[in-house]
């Protein structure tokens, strides 16, 4: 019994570490470019124009980066190259896309009929927008989904929710 509890604890710690690694991969500070040959003065220039992450560098066009005062086209090319090394972005094969799609699952709405209409429920790893006339159950559906997607179910261990209410219905 003690051995299985220790194994369970080790598995949980590994899962938490993997989740933190995923977050670290997503939000990589632009100062990491310094480790790839970009000087701190150029990094500060990026930060002054609002580019604070490596992903921000990747998403900004070379033309816009060249417009930053003090960054030449050669520097921009070097910055982009360093950002590519850090992000490891690139093309995905069909097998990689298929494997990523297999990680998606459906979250039940609490209504079997609505789940049927939606093809099994609300798809995970996506943004779902609900709109319509007032008093049709949009807020109730949202609250139900907020609760159900945080509950462990089978191999799913529960998740996190962001609820954005733009019409102050709460």
Automatic annotation (TrEMBL):
Gene Ontology MF terms: ATP binding; ATP-dependent DNA damage sensor activity; DNA strand exchange activity; double-stranded DNA binding; single-stranded DNA binding
Span of domain RecA family profile: 103-170
Keywords noted in UniProt: ATP-binding, Coiled coil, DNA-binding, Nucleotide-binding
Example GO BP: DNA recombinase assembly
GO terms under cellular component: condensed nuclear chromosome
Keyword Nucleotide-binding: yes
Cross-referenced SUPFAM superfamilies: P-loop containing nucleoside triphosphate hydrolases (SSF52540), Rad51 N-terminal domain-like (SSF47794)
Coiled coil: 2-36
InterPro entries according to UniProt: DNA_repair_Rad51/TF_NusA_a-hlx, P-loop_NTPase, Rad51_C, RecA_ATP-bd
Signal peptide limits: none
One Pfam family cited in the UniProt record for this chain: HHH_5
Protein name: RecA family profile 1 domain-containing protein
Organism: Oesophagostomum dentatum
Species lineage: Eukaryota, Metazoa, Ecdysozoa, Nematoda, Chromadorea
